[in-house]
Design brief:
This protein is α+β, with helices and mostly antiparallel strands. The protein is built from 12 helices and 17 strands. The longest helix has 24 residues. The mean pLDDT is 95. Bound molecules: flavin mononucleotide.
Length: 390
């Protein structure tokens, strides 16, 4: 069973992930994981924190001579900013007079208040340190391992930004995989339309000047997915449900659409559903359209998996404060903060790729199992043979 946990605070010493269930014999190198971490740090509209951090993974266990061993893999990413926070985040009880950086002013839209009430603390730092999207760096590292395994079986996963505020790609148009793949790693927003991307950047500039933030949406596409992942037989095995859970778990993602769900809600069945065809030469079924987004009945159908995620505007507002109430004094104040991203859509998309890879690899290994890559490969090939002789 593929499973993992992450730990670590935003300004703590490091983020750590322990994952298990990866078969032995998977080639894994730090550079591949670092590439994904670097992609998460990019994007037009990011704040100063991303200039401080230069994420790089340490593999502390589970890999020998470049190959996984089959046991738990420990990944660690240092927080470079920790050196500025050693006293405020010390494990030991701080000495008198030490800067504690207590937070009693909860920011609307963050976990600050809900978490402080739940965990019985008047210092919201105890909450925000873990609720921060810094945690997603650890998930991107885990996702890089998942991607690496899926790639061995022909599955590749990418994302692109669909909209920022009112500026977006026209609805109902499926962007071809090749166009998304052609986006360079230094693309400012990973938008496939350069003119639209300029308008998106101008919108980010405008809200940044105003000390405000702006929402948007991104799409994750998984190509070459083996048909048959997930199951209609039980609610919690449905692949679409698992993908939606994975994507909504990203901080600030508030909605998920599988395929053309919003279009479907406005359409007749005869217009919406994808016709089924059969190619005798390849002995396989296929579709000419993919409004279902690659999943039917909670099972992958072999078409590209397409999921869009809707991201709320970030809640740390520099010059447009929201009303809030101090946890200690119960007095009202206006919440405004200096350092924050204006928009993190590109990064959220990269995290979206990681969590999609994790959801897919979990179901992939549940179906094909295997303690070694050799065994997993044999099981996978046997299933593909079974599909061809259907
Ligand atoms: C990559 C990424 C970067 C983020 N950066 C910020 C940020 O700089 N400032 C901020 O207020 N929120 C940021 N967020 C969003 C918050 O983490 C999130 O809104 C908050 O934890 C509350 O969770 P919720 O929005 O899911 O309710 C970021 C989210 C992601 C995915």
């Amino acid at each position: 069973m593929f499973r993992f946990l992450t730990s670590g605070e935003s300004h703590g010493k490091a983020l750590t992930a322990i994952l298990e269930g990866v078969p032995a014999g998977l080639e894994l190198d730090r550079a591949g994981i670092d590439r994904e971490l670097a992609r998460r740090q990019k994007g037009y509209g990011r704040g100063k924190r991303m200039q401080i951090e230069n994420d790089s993974v340490q593999i502390l266990s589970g890999v020998r001579h470049g190959l996984t061993l089959g046991g738990p893999i420990t990944l660690q990413i240092e927080n470079k900013d920790w050196k500025n926070w050693q006293e405020s985040m010390s494990i030991e009880v701080p000495l008198p007079g030490v800067k504690r950086r207590v937070v009693t002013r909860p920011r609307p839209g963050h976990a600050d208040l809900a978490g402080s009430l739940k965990f019985a603390t008047h210092d919201a730092r105890n909450i925000l340190e873990r609720a921060s999207a810094r945690e997603t760096a650890a998930r991107v590292a885990v996702g890089a391992v998942a991607k690496c395994l899926l790639e061995r079986f022909g599955t590749r996963i990418l994302s692109h930004v669909v909209s920022i505020g009112p500026h977006g790609l026209p609805p109902g148009n499926s962007i071809p995989w090749e166009k998304i793949e052609a986006l360079p790693d230094d693309s400012p927003l990973r938008c496939v339309d350069p003119e639209l991307e300029k308008r998106m950047m101008a919108a980010i500039d405008e809200v940044h000047q105003a000390g405000d933030t702006i929402g948007g949406s991104f799409e994750v596409v998984a190509a070459g997915v083996t048909p048959g992942l997930g199951s209609h037989t039980q609610w919690d095995l449905r692949l679409d449900a698992l993908l939606a859970r994975a994507l909504v778990s990203i901080p600030s993602v508030k909605g998920v659409e599988i395929g053309e769900a919003a279009l479907g809600a406005r359409s007749r069945g005869s217009e919406y559903h994808d016709d089924i065809f059969y190619e005798a030469k390849k002995r396989s079924f296929y579709r000419k359209t993919n409004r279902a987004g690659g999943v039917e009945g909670g099972v992958s159908n072999g078409e590209e998996i397409r999921a869009r995620a809707y991201v709320k505007p970030l809640s740390t507002l520099r010059k447009k404060p929201k009303q809030s109430v101090d946890l200690e004094t119960k007095k009202p104040f206006m919440a405004a903060v200096e350092r924050s991203d204006t928009n993190a859509l590109l990064a959220a998309g990269v995290v979206g790729e990681a969590v999609t890879a994790i959801a897919l690899v979990e179901r992939f290994l549940a179906k094909f199992g295997g303690d070694s890559m050799e065994e997993t490969r044999r099981n996978h090939q046997g299933y593909l043979r079974q599909l061809r002789s259907f």
